[in-house]
Amino acid sequence: MINITFPDGNVKQYEAGVSSIDIAKSISHGLAKNVLSAKVNGEVWDATRPIEEDAALSLLTWNDDDGKNTFWHSSAHLMAEALEAIYPGTKFGIGPAIENGFYYDIDLGDRVLSTEDFKKIEDKIIELARQKNDFERKEISKADAIAYFEEKGDEYKLELLDGLTDGEITFYQQGNFVDLCRGPHIPNTEKIKAIKLMKVGGAYWRGDEKRKQLTRIYGITFPKQKELTAYLELLEEAKKRDHRKLGAELELFMFSDRVGQGLPIWLPKGNALRDRLMAFLKEEQEKRGYKLVTTPHIGKKDLYVTSGHYEKYGEDSFQPIHTPREGEEFLLKPMNCPHHCEIYAHKPHSYKDLPLRIAEFGTVYRYEQSGELHGLSRVRGFTQDDAHIFCTNDQLKEEFLNVLDLTKLVMTKMGFEQVTAQISLRDPENPSKYIGSLENWEKAERAIIEATKEVDLETVTALGEAAFYGPKLDFMVKDALGRSWQLGTIQVDYNLPERFELEYIGADNQAHRPVMIHRAPFGSMERFMSILIEHTAGKFPLWLTPEQFAILPISDKFNDYAEEVEKALAKHDIKGVIDNRSEKIGRKIRDTELKKIPFMLIIGEKEVESKMVAVRKQGEGDKGVMSVEDFAAYFKTLL
RNA sequence: GCUGGUAUAGCAUAACAGGAAGUGCACUCGAUUUGUAAUCGAGAGAUUAUCGGUUCGAAUCCGAUUACCAGCUCCA
User: What's the first-to-final CA gap in chain A, in angstroms?
Assistant: First the structure.
C-alpha cells in the first residue's frame, strides 16, 4: 500500500500501481470523467500512469492551467495524426501547447497549406477523436527510437533524439500515430469534442532563421462545443474593441507615414482623455509628496554613457544627433532617470531631505524593431508617468507602501477590478549577477514582500527575474474580457545611484549612497490608454470621457436653449457638445450613440417651455425629463 | 530585424481572366423643422501608397521602396 496526499492535506492509502484516474474514480465518478492529467509530486503525469510510491497528488481538469495544457498538447498529437492521414509523408517538428491552444510545426515538402485546407483537417481531427483511442505511453530505448524515425524518414525527430539520453525517451501512440514525446497526455481522444484551426504561418526549425522554414499550424480545442463557440465570440468581441480600430473611429489618435512609424499623434479627443488621466495622477502624486519636474527630450551622449544605457542600447536605438560643433553628440532620451539623477545631484542632501520623490510625465524615444510596433501598445515615442524616489534603505518599505497604495488607487479608479502583482527576486544560486550588497538586497526584497502583504495585494513570486540592479514588482490587471495585461512597475535600483555617485549626509555626518525606486503606475500613457480603450470598449468612465454629453435639439428652433443648457452645465464643470444639424432626432440619437457619448440631452418645445431636459443614457435609453440642475446633480452622483 | 500577406476618395468597399475607376457612409449645397438608433434630392471628391519596368493598353503582371496586418525574434 502507498500513501497518497491530497491538496487539502488528507492522506489516503491505495494499492501500489494505482493510477490517478483510479483514485479519481474512488472519489467520484464525475471527477474521474473530468480528469485530464495529474500532478504527482509536482510533476504533471498521465492520469493513467501507475503510481508506485507514496506521492502528493492533485488531479487536473479543464479548470487547471496544467490540465488545459495536457488537453491541448494531446490535441496537437491528434492534429498530427490527421495531417499524416491527409498528407502522407509529412514530417513533424514540435507541437506544444500554448497560451490559447497549441501548434504543430510540420514539413510538408513543397506543399503550401492555406486556410482553405482547414475544414478538411478539422473534420479529420473530429473523425479521429470519435474513434476514442487511448493515448498510450511507451518507454523506448534510444536505438529503437532512432530506428523508428529513420524508417519513417523524419529528420526533425531524429535531431530531437540527438539531445536525449537512453532511459528518458518515451513514445506516445494514439490510433495509428506514434510520436516522440515526453508527455503527459489525456487518457483518450474522445475528450476532444471541438476543434478550430486558427491560422497557418511559417516558423523556422528551432527558431533559427538560418534553418529550414516549417509550416506552423495553430489550433485550439475544447471539451465542449459550447466552449469553442464562446471562445470564438470572445475573439470577435476583442476584434471589435481593438484600440486601433476604436482609436480611429472615435478620433482619439492617429499615425502618419510622414511623421514616422510608431509615433502616435494625439487628436483633440484623445488628448483630452490623456490630459484628464495625467491631471488625476498629478493630483494624487501631489498628495503623496511628489515634486513635479520637467526635463529636456535630449541629453548629451555622456549622460547615457554615465548611466550605462548607451553601452547597452546605443547601437540598437535612435542614433546620436550631431550639431555644427565637431564631436558634439546628443541622444533622444530613452529614460528619464539619468536626468532625474542629475536633479538629485545638483545640491547636497541631508538624510532629513529623504525621501525625495521626483515625478515627470517624461516623453522618451526608443527604436523598437519595426515588426514589434503595434498601435499604441508598442511605439517608438511615448510618455511615461515616471517618478524616481531617492531614499535610504530603511525607508524602502514605507515608500513601497506609498507607491502600492497609489497604484492600487489608480487601477480601481480606472475600473480594473482584478489586480495582481509579480515580485521579481534575485536568483539565489547566482548572487554574483547582481550589483549592490547582499544585505541591501535582502532588505529590499523583504520590504517588497512585506509591503505587498500589508496592502493585501495578491502576488506571485518569480525567482531570478529581478534586474541586475534591483528587485522589482510588476502589476497585472485583467480586463473586461478576462485578458491579462502588465501595467505599471516598481523597481529598486542600486546601480544608478552608484554610477552617478549620488550621496546624502547621514545622522552620523558621513556620506551614504541613497537607493532609488523607479515607478510608473500607468507604465506609459500610450500603452495604458490602449488597454483602457479595449477594457471599456470606448465607453470611458464618466470623469474621463472627452465629451460627457451631447445636446440634441429636436429642431433648429431650440438651438438657443441648447446653448443655454450647455453654459449652465459648464458651470458645473460638465463638458459636452451640441448637435445643431437640421436632422431628425432619430438621426441625432443614432450618431451620438455610435460616438459613445454617455448622455444625450434632448430638448424640444416641452423642455424649452418648462426649462427641462429629456435625458437619455448611452446604451440604456430614456431616463426621463428633469431640470438642468437636477441633471447636474444626478451626473455628479455617477462620477 | 526575419517570413508571409495587404495597400483603390476621410472611412468601408467593387471592378470577370490586362481594355472607360464604380457604390455606400462621411463632406458641400438645396429642400425638409423633425420627439428617442439612418428624411429626400443634387454636387464635389481618385496621379488606384511611392518609384521604376513589361505591354498598343496596367488598379490588375514584374522589381524596389514605404506603411499596415499576422507570426517569429526582441523590449532600458
Answer: 64
Q: What are the residues whose beta carbons fall under 8 Å from the beta carbon of A258, sequence distance 6 or more?
A: none
Domain boundary among the residues A536, A559, A585 is at A536
Same-domain check for residues A95 and A81: yes
Give the domain-ending residue among A479, A513, A536: A536
Are A378 and A514 in the same domain? yes
* Cell triple for A591: 450618431
Same structural domain, A412 and A279: yes
Q: Can you tell me the mean pLDDT for A63-74?
A: 92
Which member of A105, A154, A386, A493 is catalytic?
A386
Distance A594 CA to B24 C1' (A): 18
Query: Which residue has its C-alpha nearest to nucleotide B11's C1'?
Result: A249
Percent of chain A past pLDDT 90, that is, above it, reads 74
Distance of CA A173 to the CA centre of its chain: 36
| Residue A504 sits in the same domain as residue A422 | yes
| B21 C1' to A257 CA distance, Å | 25
Give distance CA A586 / C1' B43 (Å): 26
Domain that holds residue A344: 269-297+333-536
For A222-247, what is the mean pLDDT? 93
Q: Which of A454, A474, A476 is nearest to A462 (CA)?
A: A474
Provide the number of structural domains found in chain A: 4
Q: For residue A355, is the peptide bond before it cis, meaning its omega torsion is within 30 degrees of 0?
A: yes
Is A596 among the catalytic positions?
Answer: no
Distance (Å, rounded) from C-alpha A208 to C-alpha A225?
37
Residue A486 lies in a domain: yes
Kindly report the bases of strand B lying within 7 A of a protein C-beta atom: 1-4, 11, 31-39, 66-76
CATH for A405: 3.30.930.10
- In this structure, is residue A567 part of a structural domain? yes
Question: Would A263 be classed as within a structural domain?
Answer: no
Nucleotide nearest to A312 (CA to C1'): B76
The spacing between the Cα labelled CA in A30 and the C1' in B15, in angstroms, equals 59
Q: How distant is C1' of B54 from CA of A388, in Å?
A: 62
Tell me: do A528 and A597 sit in the same domain.
no
Give the closest residue to B50 (Cα–C1′).
A257
Average the pLDDT over A218-224 and give the result.
94
Find the CATH number of the domain harbouring A626.
3.40.50.800
The enclosing domain of A53 has a CATH number of 3.10.20.30
**What pLDDT does A114 receive?**
76
Q: Per the domain annotation, does A302 fall within a domain?
A: no
Nucleotide nearest to A594 (CA to C1'): B37
**Residue of A384, A395, A548, A618 marked active site:** A384
Q: Do A497 and A515 meet the contact criterion of CB atoms below 8 Å apart?
A: yes
Please name the residue whose C-alpha is nearest to the C1' of nucleotide B72.
Answer: A203
Same domain, A47 and A71: no
Do A90 and A182 belong together in one domain? yes
pLDDT digits (tens, 9 = 90+) for A412-436: 999 998 899 999 999 888 888 888 8
CB A79, CB A65: distance < 8 Å: no
ipTM of the complex: 0.94
Nucleotide nearest to A592 (CA to C1'): B37
Report the CATH number at residue A132: 3.30.980.10
* Predicted confidence (pLDDT) per residue in A446-466, tens digit: 999 999 999 989 999 988 889
Helix %, strand %, coil % for chain A, to 5? 40, 30, 30
What mean pLDDT is predicted for residues A584-610?
A: 95
Q: Specify whether A376 is located in the same domain as A289.
A: yes
A366 is catalytic: yes
* CA–C1' gap, A526 and B67, in angstroms: 20
Q: What does the alpha-carbon distance between residue A265 and residue A542 come to, in Å, rounded to a whole number?
A: 24
Q: Active site includes A144? A: no
Q: Where are the alpha helices (DSSP H) in A537-638?
A: 559-571, 585-594, 605-610, 628-637
